[in-house]
Each structure stands twice: as structure tokens, then as C-alpha cells.
Amino acid sequence: MLGLPLIHGLNGKNVYRGISPMAGQEGERIFDEKLTVVDDPTLDGRPGSSSHDDEGVPRRRNVLVDEGRLTGFIYDLKTAALASAEPTGNGERGLFSPPSPSFSNMVVANGETSVDDIIAGMDKGLLIETPLGLGQGNVISGAFSNNLSLAFKIESGEIVGRVKDVSVAGNVYQDLARIEALSLESEWVYGGIRLPYILLTQLNVVTRG
Question: What is the model's pTM?
Fold first, then answer.
């Protein structure tokens, strides 16, 4: 839910077209300083890792958000030329389509607090494991609204049970500007995105009464 709008917002093609909310904000702090986002094709054993992209451009580790500050976007050769930017080695070719900018391995840097300690410090909240579908909402604007497939209720620092008929909604650009904590632990999601657990305090939660 949180990664997909970032992928679209950091795509140089959307930046050049002027539809990314991050367009024109390079060098500015637009997220919480706890957030660092990297495109890293150098990681061993990952499906998205390689020495060159599909256009033959050498790949490199690209820091896109550095402690909340927007530092760059991903480009293929064409988009980089149109935007007067350096190609970043992110051209990916489809079977029946020309190359376009695409992440190799999207990595959100870990935090300093264990998941157990994050949960222990919560008075009331949700531990979200799996949303029901992705891309619901306006992905380009950062808005999301998702029913939850698997989530657990937290009370007084303990998981007390599973919840049903619950959905969450928010906007990435607002919610990731106020991050309470990031976990020491991280997990690979869909093979190409590595995320820690993220504690947000302002997420909208709706349930059936």
C-alpha cells in the first residue's frame, strides 16, 4: 500500500510528464527524516539485481530519498534525455513494449526499534500483515484505500486477536511525513521490495459495526 505510490512517484517518466507529486521538489525534505529509499541492483541473489539494465546502461545503487530529503528519480535513456537528466540504469524492456523506467530492488532502510518493542509501546492499534489487493485509490496522488486480508488488534502492548471487516485509508505523502518508528527487521515483499515495519499514528481505520 505504501510502496506502490512511491514507485510511481519516483519514476522519472511520471516526473517528466508532470504528474508525480514529487516533481520539482528535488533537494527538499518531503518525508520524515527516518525515511530513506534506495534502488539497489547490487544486492546478491535478488531477481532484480544485475550489472546492466535492458538498454545496456551500467546499474548502480541510487539513493532516491535520503533521511526524508528527495535526492533523485529513476530514469531510462529516453526519459533521462527528455528530462535533461542522467540515466540511472533503470531501463526495463517488456516483451512487446519499449524500455521504460523500472525499479530493480526497492529498499526502505531499517529503523532502530524491534517489532516487539514497537508493539509493546502501543496502547491501541493494528498490526497489518496483508492488504486485500493493491492499487485501490489514486496511486499517482499517493492516496490509498484498502481492505485488510490479515491484520491483528493491539491493546496495551499486546496482540489480542485477529480483526475482520477492517479497511485503512490515507495518503503516502502525508502519512510518511510523520513516521513514529521503523523496525530493525525488514521483509521482502513481492520479490523486489524490502520494507521494515512502519509505525504510523494518523492512519484512517474503518470497520463494520
Answer: 0.93
